[in-house]
Amino acid sequence: MQIERWKKVYLIGIKGVGVVALAKILKGLGIEVVGSDIQEKFFTDEVLKKEKIRYYEGFSQENLKKELPVDAVISSVAFLLPSSNNEEVAYAKKLKIPLLSYPQALALIFNQSFGIAICGSHGKSSTTAVLGKIFQDLGYDPTVLVGSEVIEWQSNSRVSKNFQEKIKFLKENEEKLKNLSWLKKNLKNLPLFIIEADEYRDAFLNYFPRIIIITNVDYDHPDYFKNYQAYLKSYLKFIKNLKEPKILITHKNFPFQKNTLHLKVKKINTNFPFPIPGKHFQQNLSLLNCLRKFLSLPFSKFLKSLKNYKGIRRRFEIIKKTKRLTFIDDYAHHPNEVFSFYQSLKIKFKRYKKILIFQPHTFTRLHFLFDEFLEIFKKIKKDKETKILILKTFPSAREKEILIKIKKLKTDKELAKKLNLDYFENFEDLAKFLKEKIKKGRWVLASIGAGDVYKIFDFLK
What we know:
The protein has helices at about 15-30, 45-50, 60-65, 85-95, 100-110, 125-135, 165-170, 180-185, 230-240, 280-295, 300-305, 335-350, 365-370, 370-380, 400-405, 410-420, 425-435, and strands at about 10, 30-35, 55, 70-75, 100, 115-120, 145-150, 155-160, 190-195, 210-215, 245-250, 260-265, 315-320, 325-330, 355-360, 385-390, 420-425, 445-450. By secondary structure, it is of the alpha/beta class. The strands form three sheets. The chain has a seven-stranded mixed β-sheet with strand order 8-7-9-6-10-11-12, with helices on both faces. Helix 3 (about 60-65) crosses helix 4 (about 85-95), helix 6 (about 125-135) packs across helix 11 and helix 12 (about 335-350) packs parallel to helix 14 (about 370-380). The longest helix is centred in the middle third of the chain and has 17 residues, at about 280-295. The protein starts with 7 loop residues before the first strand and ends in a 13-residue tail after the last strand.
């Protein structure tokens, strides 16, 4: 499909963080964009309003019918699943309008660009945002797509002003990309496109980047990947998608790949000036510094950009701060992420008592990584200044089929019982408990999880 010939597209699930970013990019390419989604409000409603992109609230084939003709219908992956029964998807199929998933549509643009893909089990959103900011601060005007709202941009994406012209320049000079000296000299003329490349359901296999940065590879998404080997195999397949100049940047423990320029971080710098503490952030910044060295970008400006980073939503995000109380929210949902977040919290808030409210995200992740969750919470429990609470699991429709096959599901209640932790079924009971607990003293209250655990703060106003 030739996206440059498109005049109008219709996006189903337009409020999704990935889809709204794609909508913004498509509009930047001069394509008329319209879409639909549920009525619930998200930060993306403001992004769409700011971009003057029209959308319907609620799904109906009448919505799509009003907008015809369209060159393509692009849908969030969730609404393409048979269980979704989305009537707009069904209507597009009936009319034989080209129907693309979000990753497929994004790939049409990304694969024409000088694509930099940041992937990994943890840290890819923050790392993508930081790299996008670095290139922006250095005057390279990148197009960037992040899986969360970048506070500085008040959006989860930014679009280069001359993206189409730069794509044309790249096509005319494709063979020169093998010359690394030419690449460094012409970086500002290239259509830099930095994305957070998601591995779930092998989505990132749609992308053919020039540079891949891998933050880490810890087993995740057990509802799709049967085991760690299947998970790792997906990453190895992705590396094979590299196009010239074929640059792979990893930490030294990642398997070496032939026919690529494999840049390995041999030593992690732990002194980068960054507003959020934690070894895991310094590890990811070391990867970006490796790319900086390779591209011969100025170190002083690199450091200045890191120092002024304002963060992204739901990643160590301070919701409220007074002399006595601090409310902080984090998206951590994997055992290693939860423990890394806790360690950062300890560094940042040394003299505060802490309450961690953990909401498991998906029944399958909790079940298959149950022992790992037990291990990290046992470690945290040793800290007498920290109390852990468990909130009812946030489920996902995508795991229905696999749940049927699990004979004895390990649950949130079982986790709480084994660790002797307080467990809560709802926000009302949790809020009542917290109000009593934080009446006196200095407290940090942290909501942890990829679900809606952050809503607890609305009950504490």
